[in-house]
Write a structure and sequence with these properties.
Elements (H helix, E strand, L loop, with lengths): L1 H20 L17 E4 L14 H9 L3 E8 L5 E3 L6 H4 L10 H4 L14 H8 L5 E5 L7 H11 L5 E5 L2 H10 L5 E5 L11 H8 L4 H4 L3 E5 L6 H8 L5 E6 L2 H7 L5 E4 L7
Parallel strand pairs: 1-2, 1-9, 2-4, 4-5, 5-6, 6-7, 7-8, 8-9
Antiparallel strand pairs: 2-3
Helix pairs in contact: 2-5
Length: 275
C-alpha cells in the first residue's frame, strides 16, 4: 500500500520540476511600452520575388516606409561578416547548393535573391537603413554550438540607437545574451517542432517545443508558432508566468484576429494587417 501513497508525491514532484523548468524571467523585465501598437513584417515587407524579395533591402525599405517593425535573420559569412539571410543554405533563394557560411561576403553579394536585382544585404547596411525608424526583431541563426554570430553582432547592436530585441530557436544564443548582454530583451523562438516534421533529433525537439530550458535561458518573451498556441508549456508561460508573447507567422487577417487572445505582438507575412 505504501507505493500507492508515493505515486501522487512523485507526480506532484515531477509537475513542480516541470513548472520550474519552463519558468522564464520573472523579475526586472524590460519595459514593453515602446513595442505596443507595432506589427512586425516578417523578413521585411516582401511583396514579390522580383521587386522586393524576403530579407532584401527593398523589403526593409518598404517596411520602414509603411511604418511596420521588422523581423529579420542574421548569420555569418565565411569571413565572419554578419549578413541578413534566413536559410542556412542558399538553395531556395539563390539556387546554389552551398551554405551561407561557405562563402565570403564578396562571393555572397555576387548572388541575387530569386533572380531579382537584390543581393544579400549585410546586417550593417540594414541597421543604417532602418536607423531607429522602426523596431527590430533580430533572429540569430545558430545552427549548432557555434555562437560566434553573437560575438560579432552584439557590439554592432550596442552602438545602434534604435529599439530592438533578439530571439533564436537555439537556446545557446539566449544563454550567450543572458551572460554577456543581460539587459537586452531576449526571446525564445519555438513551435511544435515534432508535429512540424522538422529534420533533427526528436528528443531535442521535445525539449525545445516544451520550453524546458527556460530555467537556463530565462527569456523575456516567447515567440511561438501561432498554429500551436495551445501547447501546454506555452499556455502556462503566458497565463501563469505572464510572459509577453510574439506570434509568428500570421498570414491572414482572420489568423491575426484569432491570435489576439493568445499573443501580445504579431509578426505577419503575405498580407497587410488591418486594425
Amino acid at each position: 500500500m505504501l507505493w500507492l501513497l508515493t505515486i501522487p508525491i512523485i507526480i506532484l514532484t515531477l509537475f513542480i520540476l516541470y513548472l520550474l523548468a519552463i519558468m522564464p524571467k520573472l523579475t526586472s523585465r524590460p519595459d514593453l511600452t515602446p513595442w505596443k501598437g507595432w506589427y512586425f513584417a516578417h523578413r521585411g515587407l516582401h511583396q514579390s520575388h522580383k521587386k522586393s524579395p524576403e530579407n532584401s533591402m527593398a523589403a526593409f525599405k518598404l517596411a520602414v516606409e509603411h511604418g511596420y517593425g521588422i523581423e529579420l535573420d542574421v548569420q555569418l559569412s565565411k569571413d565572419k561578416i554578419p549578413v541578413v539571410f534566413h536559410d542556412y543554405t542558399l538553395t531556395r533563394i539563390c539556387g546554389l547548393d552551398k551554405k551561407v557560411c561557405d562563402l565570403t561576403l564578396k562571393e555572397l553579394q555576387e548572388l541575387r535573391l530569386y533572380h531579382s536585382n537584390e543581393q544579400i544585404p549585410t546586417f550593417e547596411s540594414v541597421l543604417n537603413l532602418v536607423n531607429g525608424k522602426v523596431p527590430l526583431i533580430v533572429e540569430f541563426k545558430v545552427e549548432s554550438h557555434d555562437t560566434s554570430v553573437c560575438d560579432v553582432v552584439a557590439p554592432m547592436l550596442d552602438n545602434y540607437k534604435g529599439l530592438y530585441c533578439i530571439e533564436s530557436f537555439n537556446p545557446l544564443a539566449l544563454m550567450w545574451y543572458k551572460k554577456n548582454r543581460p539587459n537586452v530583451m531576449r526571446g525564445q523562438l519555438s513551435s511544435n517542432l515534432i508535429k512540424d516534421k522538422e529534420s533533427g533529433d526528436p528528443s531535442l525537439y521535445f525539449i525545445l517545443q516544451n520550453l524546458l530550458l527556460n530555467f537556463v535561458t530565462k527569456p523575456h518573451f516567447i515567440a511561438y508558432n501561432h498554429l500551436h498556441s495551445k501547447m501546454p508549456s506555452f499556455v502556462l508561460c503566458r497565463n501563469l508566468y505572464r510572459i509577453p508573447t510574439f506570434a509568428w507567422t500570421i498570414k491572414s487577417q482572420e489568423a491575426l484576429e484569432s491570435s489576439k487572445k493568445s499573443f501580445d505582438f504579431f509578426i505577419f507575412d503575405h498580407f497587410i494587417p488591418q486594425d
